[in-house]
Hints:
By secondary structure, the protein is an alpha/beta fold. The chain has helices at 59-65, 79-88, 107-118, 163-178, 203-220, 261-267, 288-298; strands at 4-7, 28-31, 53-54, 71-74, 93-96, 102-104, 155-157, 184-187, 227-232, 247-253, 273-279, 304-309, 336-338, 341-346, 349-354, 359-369, 375-381, 385-391. The strands form 4 sheets. The protein has an 8-stranded parallel beta sheet, with helices on one face. Strands 13-14-15-18-16-17 form a 6-stranded antiparallel beta sheet. It is elongated, with a radius of gyration of 21 Å.
Amino acid sequence: MKNAILVLAVSFILLAGCVSEEPVEKPPVVVPEEVPVPEEPEEISSSDYPKIAIWLAKKDEVIASGKPYDLVMTAWFTPEEASQIREQNPDVKLFAGLTTNWIFDNEGWKLFLETVASHGNDEPYELTEEMYLKNPNGSKCAFGWESEEWNHEEIYAMDPRNEEWRGLVFSFYGNVLDQPEHDGIIVDMVVEKQWWCPEAISDGEWEEATKEIFAELNEMNTEDKPIIFNAGLQFTDIDAYAQYMDGYVLENFLGEWGADYDTGLEAADSDYIVVYAVDTDDTGIQDTKRMRLGLTLSLLNDNTYFAYDFGPRDHGGAWWYPEYDVDLGEPLDDYYKKDNAYWREFENGVVVSSPYSSVDVVFDEEHTDATSGVTSKTFTVEKEDGRIFTGG
């Protein structure tokens, strides 16, 4: 374990959402001489329903919200930040990381990457031109993220075969793994093929080199901390790397380009952690029906989390809804299909998720709709909506 002080005084800017926080002076992050290694790998708890996640979190908003998030994922957590978030939920899991194959061309973002990677090394790491993946004409391989409207810089692919780039990535993630505040790691923008610049590298070369990077990360992960990838649309887009991850995020789930309900339901039929990251398609218009449909889907299984925010252009806002505050207790059984909807019964209530058609819900005893606050024995759940009913 490296023994030194890492001072982070940079603007945290996260890759896929390109979310920036105002630059603030960060306190020193002390890396202790020894971090106890658990006797067994720590598992993510499945005793809290619903389980609310936040992808590429804006930590200041999470802390200010005072809300008990279950899974918070962002670039890094200082001891003070981790302590504050854990005051809100002692069982929260904090996952940190950036990416292994891409660079956000923002000076603050790059400084953060270089600073963390350089910690504990005799020579500082610096990004060089040789690390970038380049087309035959010498141009960098651009993702197409640059936008004047959003004030976002470009995202560039890095050459996964480049040894200097690999060294930087391994040093960065080594320091992320070393922090006792981090319960797991994340890897954003995982892809099997270099769709953007096929002349720069073959699909086989990209996949093989990326596998080598992930294999090394797994070797470095001596505490067996869970690893979550951003799959983007669906698992089949990253299944070549299945052995290197413990779970994945379905970004823009139920959105314009994201996976649909049935794909999400099928995804949960596995041993992977699945995070349904629903959003507003970068509009800011909060579609609460879509939110509830994703939330209730996440309650049908035990290996799933739910997140809802603005979208890829501005991930990580600490949005909170009344349904998140419900204490359903433990599930009484697996979900089942009834009246063209999906149902699951809990100690303290019932979840109904209705993607295909409206459904009439009739109880023998009075229940309360967590959304409307109405107490009754009969309710209607509209098509592409879901509801949580407590009581009974």
